[in-house]
Design a protein that fits this description.
409 residues, alpha/beta, Aspartate Aminotransferase, domain 2, Aspartate Aminotransferase, domain 1, 2 domains, seven-stranded mixed beta sheet, five-stranded mixed beta sheet, 15 helices, 12 strands, 14% strand, binds pyridoxal-5'-phosphate
Length: 409
């Protein structure tokens, strides 16, 4: 369909925003409220009938509007609305689409915070979620009930790196008249879920899109209609719950967005190099750019090919102790940081089993293959990746990895 024509990197290249004094960057709007020359225009703005007028920055600010419109272009949606965090975007989206006593079908391997929101928080309002293996389309369809309103998934899942078949999930959603919400945080530019039928695309901007780990941020990309619903002064979740991004941050993120295409290409190139060399050396590694990844073909079919297979790699060291030793040694060698989060210019690693995915009960984690020794690595923009590989392999040796039967089982 339009996947061939829409190029998200070109969309970034073509952004043209002038500052108030002809600056090459748009001016930052340093105001919470805005004046009107005529009282009537204020009223019209309240009612949503005065395009281009700003009312109050919890609704929209010029700086947030610039960033939102840039992200809408990248995701090829009519509109977008930035939020103070990824969770601010995700929770507002879900709460806008669901009512009490309705039901959600969600991938069982999603970001821990989203999982906790669906599993522990929404039941307060009698909203239940069925968690399914999202790679099994029959199981997804079988989980749909008469009161299901949302299918929720991540393009590349956190932390298991499972790939969602957005095209077919959207067909299932359409058939049942429900909305498909996709978190594209791990794969900006690589996937354009809206081109494959996703109704709403959300991101944590905290990760690859901002890329500097100096702020949290989020965005919802969707139709004009849905974004206007979110911002409605009477019943919009974004407007009323108030997870608004600060204008200064929006301006910063917009500047970082300009380098996203070259960063994604480099993250992917480095991760592909490491994954291939690890596999050749008998290290049990999971990366969607490897033929051995269960959804390698699906990823290849759905991707925008110029950006590679993303910067995320997982290694299974089986026990938490071994994972911890490996990560501490890596940090001591300055290969990267033992830290949660991802999409940073340096490599970050953590063991999500007992960390960011600890919201998921142990028996469920085991069932989905999320062992305590799983190490998730977000590969950085390193210039000398060969050197990084030698250090990683040496560290695995020192940790005793090759002495065990880890590589073979
Ligand atoms: C980090 C993350 C979130 C949450 O975003 P915040 O900016 O931390 O609120 C949501 N989804 C995914 C996939 C993430 O990695």
């Amino acid at each position: 369909m339009s996947r061939q024509k829409h190029n998200p990197a070109k969309a970034i290249q073509e952004l043209q925003f002038f500052g108030e004094f002809g600056g090459v960057n748009p001016s930052i709007s340093d105001s919470a409220t805005y004046t009107f020359l005529k009282a009537k225009t204020m009223l019209d703005t309240f009612e949503g009938n005065a395009d281009g007028c700003y009312l109050y920055s919890r609704h929209t600010s010029p700086s947030n509007h610039y960033l939102s419109s840039a992200l809408a272009k990248i995701e090829n949606t009519e509109s977008a609305n930035v939020a103070a965090s990824g969770m601010g975007a995700i929770t507002a989206t879900i709460l806008q689409l669901i009512n009490a006593r309705e039901h959600i079908v969600a991938s069982r391997t999603i970001y821990g915070g989203t999982y906790a929101f669906l599993k522990n928080w929404l039941p307060k309002f009698d909203i239940e979620t069925s968690f399914v293996d999202i790679t099994d389309l029959n199981k997804v369809e079988a989980a749909i009930k008469p009161n299901t309103k949302i299918i929720y998934t991540e393009t590349l899942s956190n932390p298991l790196l499972e790939v969602s078949d957005i095209e077919n999930l959207s067909k299932i959603a359409q058939k049942h008249g429900i909305k498909l919400v996709v978190d594209n945080t791990f794969t900006p530019l690589i996937f354009t879920p809206a081109n494959m039928g996703a109704d709403v695309v959300v991101h944590s901007l905290t990760k690859f899109i901002n890329g500097a780990n100096d702020t949290v941020g989020g965005v919802v990309c969707s139709s004009n209609d849905f974004i206007n619903q979110l911002k409605d002064v009477n019943d919009g979740s974004s407007m009323l719950l108030g997870p608004v991004m600060d204008s200064l941050r929006a301006a910063q993120i917009l500047k970082n967005l300009r380098t996203l295409p070259i960063r994604m290409i480099q993250h992917s190139k480095n991760a592909q190099y490491l994954a291939e060399h690890m596999e050749q050396d008998g290290i049990k590694v999971k990366y969607p750019g490897l033929q051995s990844h269960p959804q390698h073909k699906l990823f290849t079919k759905l991707m925008n090919p110029e950006f590679g297979y993303s910067g995320m790699i997982t290694l299974d060291l089986k026990t938490a102790e071994m994972a911890n030793e490996f990560m501490e040694r890596l940090q001591n060698k300055n290969v990267g940081y033992l830290a949660v989060s991802l999409g940073f210019y340096r490599t970050l690693f953590n063991a999500p089993g007992k960390g960011t995915s600890s919201e998921i009960p142990e028996d469920e984690r085991m069932a989905m293959g999320l062992s305590d020794g799983l190490v998730r690595m977000s590969i950085g923009l390193d210039f000398d990746i060969e050197d990084v590989y030698h250090k990683m392999k040496k560290t695995l040796e020192e940790t005793g990895y090759f002495k065990t039967d880890l590589q073979t089982n």
